[in-house]
Amino acid sequence: MFRSSILKQNFTVSSRFSRVASTRIALAVKSQQCRSIHWSPVLLKKRSKEPVQDDKSKDTAEPIQINLDEVSQRFQTVLDKFAKHANESKLGKTNPQIFDNLAVETPDGELPYTAVAITAVKGRNFIITVFDPANVKHVVNAVLASGLNMNPVSDPANKQMLKVPLPPVTTESKKESIKQLKGVFDKLKNGPGGSGKNASTLSAIRADIKNKISSKKKMSDQEQTLWKKVEGVHKDYVKKLDDSFKAAETAIMK
Question: Which structural domain, as residue segments, surrounds residue 112?
Fold first, then answer.
């Protein structure tokens, strides 16, 4: 009986100990949960600051530098191209290069005119020298089919030479030359003309430089200052191109 009483007391103590231990474990778990919930917002705040630092680094990036001398050189290439066309228009049908773009059908296939013959001006005639006598008739056919209204005549003294009388210059032919030159002028001034380094018109070069300065709709103050300088150079070359066309038009109509 005494032994039974001792066992009963031990069981009671053990039960109390189990309840205390369970209570402590529950409190520890709850404390751990509260602790993790308490610290999670801090971690989120730290992470949210990282992109803000990246934005600041972007804002402090150095702006692109534009060399205005190089800008002028690019615009000048357009004026040089127009000057070449204007000179050809002034010469009109007296230009010895008038046949250079023709294609000549030969037994060896289609060849460019410049690979088959060469042209010079003598008095009121074009003098065509054909490199191979076998191609003389093929050159004649190419000139007749060109739509230039010219009729090559063989030189009896030289089988490799053709004589082409120059057509008379009329007011109508001059106006036609001006019309063709005006088309070139409009294209070089406002035409699309490629992009990037391949930009070949004033407007295309202007667009390429603007994109290099800023692709954003709203420029920064520093970008706007640089862009105004580029715009000034562009306007100068637009005026130069306008003046070149007017001068060529006057020269053609003389």
Answer: 94-165
